[in-house]
Amino acid sequence: MDASAAGEPSAILEALSDGRRIMVAETIKLLLFPAMMAFAASSDLFTMTISNRISLILVCGFFLLAFFVGMPPIDMLRHVGAAAIVLAFAFGFFARGWIGGGDAKLAAATALWLGFDFLMPYLLYASLLGGALTLLLLKFRMATLPSFLARQDWVQRLHAKDGGVPYGIALAIAALVVYPDTPFMT
User: Which of 37, 128, 147, 183 has the largest CB neighbor count within 10 A?
Assistant: First the structure.
């Protein structure tokens, strides 16, 4: 048996592991991020809460994806820096009662995925969408609810004049608008 024949199985195994690595990376970037954004938006709409699990899944998913795509450590640190800055500002907003704690954590976890390169477009879209959502809710709260809607708890929460704004919807939509342009997706 020659040396090249003996090396073939290891080359095949290496190719399979590369194939699996690519498959895992593709699954994470194509499914995990969009699914968590959709779940965060729907959760905020129906319950006015965003579970900590969503942010934790996003953080773990980012590091898994960064590992599988071979992101350099300096780039990972830049993404962590973007997330840390957003978290600091968002918790300042939370302390003032402008946003919820789940919104603050979601914004930071999203910034981790987007990094500094896509942070400003994300924040701009989130601000514009959040303002539009707020205006829409104010108009909705001035209207009289039909009886079939008035019986729904989540609609009553949204309709309450002193109720909050499910800002996670704006954060999630903004993330999904910006995400396709990121290096993960291009």
Answer: 37
